[in-house]
């Protein structure tokens, strides 16, 4: 064969050899060993303890409902029923041990993420009730007029 065939073939074989050697040194020996056989992902028997030591930052609304049942029930009956508590209150990582660790975001920007009117009439996002934040009650937080757990109710009167 001519050299224009051999040279690229040697380069390809060299690249394959480098990848296999690098894989031997970089991939842990227990990767892919498990009940399901060879698998991709983060689970390896050798690092189970590391994962057990990871603190869960977000705990979902189910974590909140034991202590805040009234608010949980209120939001589950409102248009905001699919929004998780931690979207507005922040991660429940240290709560309830440190109640001040939860912040309540009352900013217009938070509400505007979903409620800025978008010109997409054929999408479910376009069907959501929206406002123009540049002209709708500028300078006021949304919670002044709207109750966040159930926006159909009146907000905080100041």
Automatic annotation (TrEMBL):
Main location: other
Keyword annotations of the record: Electron transport, Heme, Iron, Metal-binding, Signal, Transport
Localisation per UniProt entry: Cell envelope
InterPro entries: Multiheme_Cytochr_ET (IPR051829), Tetrahaem_cytochrome (IPR012286)
Transmembrane segments: none
Residues annotated as domain Tetrahaem cytochrome: 82-152
Pfam families according to UniProt: Cytochrom_c3_2
Protein name, as recorded: Cytochrome c3 family protein
